[in-house]
């Protein structure tokens, strides 16, 4: 069974239609939660969800409906539970999903202009979470920023950080051993999503928020 729905801010339709509910959904045992960031990923992940034996909630961000991108006509699937390194880097790992993955990529381009090479990991599937790919990236960069549109408290960003810290590598090191700076969790402000466009935009992390957080971490 696949439940296809939408979420996130971006259309000024206030709290009841703009919340990011994935932190609630991932706490349901056996339920998969998929949140694509690109048209290509959306097609491949939806086909995989339909073929899955598990119940899947497939959440599309409202603000991505106008997004353009190459989508092959032929049949293809993207395995559920497999993250995608959208941009390779060596200085810091930014982990995100859904529309915020695009925000992370924009921030990475700005950071590159200042000589900071950010790696962007798009979870694509929030549950099951591909922590192997995330941990491998953090081991390489030694710094972690999580970027989510949901709230920080009991949120996906906090769960990513916990899993990275607890991760055990084959060489005996833990994720905690690899970190050279405290992880940063960028998330929505603890307010109901506003209807006003300026307030709505101010309620979630921006490209400049990401750039500022990374530069502070690198200082």
Explain what this protein looks like in three dimensions.
- The structure is a single chain.
- The protein has 219 residues and is an alpha/beta fold.
- The protein has two domains: 2-64; 84-218, Rossmann fold (3-Layer(aba) Sandwich), CATH 3.40.50.
- Helix content is 37%, strand content 21%.
- It has nine helices and nine strands.
- The strands form two sheets. Strands 4-6-5-8-9 form a five-stranded mixed beta sheet, with helices on both faces. Strands 1-3-2-7 form a four-stranded mixed beta sheet, with helices on one face.
- Helix 4 (99-113) packs across helix 9 (207-218).
Q: Nutshell version of this structure?
A:
With 219 residues, the chain is an alpha/beta fold. Helices cover 37% and strands 21% of the residues.
Keywords:
single chain; Rossmann fold; 4-stranded mixed sheet; globular
SSE inventory with pairings:
Elements: E1 2-7, H1 15-18, H2 22-25, E2 32-34, H3 39-51, E3 56-61, E4 84-87, E5 92-96, H4 99-113, E6 118-122, E7 125-127, H5 131-141, E8 144-151, H6 156-166, H7 175-178, E9 184-188, H8 197-202, H9 207-218
CATH architecture of the largest domain: 3-Layer(aba) Sandwich
- Helix-and-strand structural type: alpha/beta
The SSE string, one letter per element, is EHHEHEEEHEEHEHHEHH
Under CATH, the topology of the largest domain can be stated as: Rossmann fold
Helix tally equals 9
Shape: globular
Helix content: 25-40%
Distance between the termini: 48 Å
